[in-house]
Design a protein that fits this description.
This protein has 8 helices and 5 strands. With about 230 residues, the chain is of the alpha/beta class. α2 packs across α3 and α4 crosses α5. InterPro entries: DDE_dom, IS_Transposase, Transpos_IS6.
């Protein structure tokens, strides 16, 4: 199926604009200017619609191609205010820093924790060997009822990996001047996580030559996803 059918601009331009939006802290206006500098005249509204439509499609393809997550999940929740109402963004990352799932909910009680854990189990395909959380009691409820055989650690500072993973979301939230709705936030964060995982190459941990090889592989995979 040709996902670009009836679009006036070629796939290379559309996929490049979507990549810029989810890879960097850029607004639709910023991307409009970057494309204009290259002689490509497209409105920010068209770019916004591309990001909504194709961001979801690309994220779905990236998840299908993903090679799997680690066996340890670091889980945390952070509040997000949308239209004056407080929501909670639940996030799980593995030991390599890859985002397993992000899920926006109105509460952080036991029922909300169980919903999130069920999503994690579907994404992972099996129970993790270990989960690391803070001392929120809702995690204990979900752990006892859904994955009682999994090791559950609540040691102080051990969950810093998940807490630090929220930083990129906060940066984008400020750049977007807050999320406009829960649906928009969930749609954006899901696509953002999938793109981030692909280009999460641990640049500060590896030699430059190895990093360049990994980056080349990431671009090649991205090219297959957007084809």
């Amino acid at each position: 199926m040709n996902i670009y059918k009836r679009h006036r601009f070629p796939p290379d331009i559309i996929s490049y604009a979507v990549w810029l939006y989810y890879r960097f802290n850029l607004s639709h206006r910023n991307i409009e200017d970057l494309l204009a500098e290259r002689g490509i005249i497209v409105t920010r509204e068209s770019i916004r619609l591309w990001c909504i439509k194709f961001g979801r499609l690309y994220a779905r393809r990236l998840k299908r191609k993903h090679r799997g997550y680690g066996d340890t999940f670091y889980i945390d929740e952070v509040f997000v205010r949308i239209n004056g109402k407080q929501h909670y963004l639940w996030r799980a990352v593995d030991q390599d820093g890859e985002v397993v799932d992000v899920y926006l909910q109105a509460k952080r009680d036991g029922a909300a924790a169980k919903r999130f854990f069920k999503r994690l189990l579907r994404s992972h395909g099996s129970e993790p060997r270990k989960i690391v959380t803070d001392k929120l009691r809702s995690y204990g409820v979900a752990h006892r009822e859904l994955i009682p055989e999994t090791i559950h650690s609540t040691k102080q500072y051990e969950n810093n990996r998940a807490e630090q993973s929220h930083e990129s979301t906060r940066v984008r939230e400020r750049g977007m001047r807050r999320f406009k709705s829960a649906k928009q936030a969930q749609r954006f964060l899901g696509a953002h996580a999938a793109v981030s995982n692909l280009f999460n190459l641990g640049r500060h941990l590896i030699r430059s030559e190895h990093y360049r090889n990994l980056r080349t592989s990431a671009f090649a995979e991205w090219g297959m996803v957007v084809a």
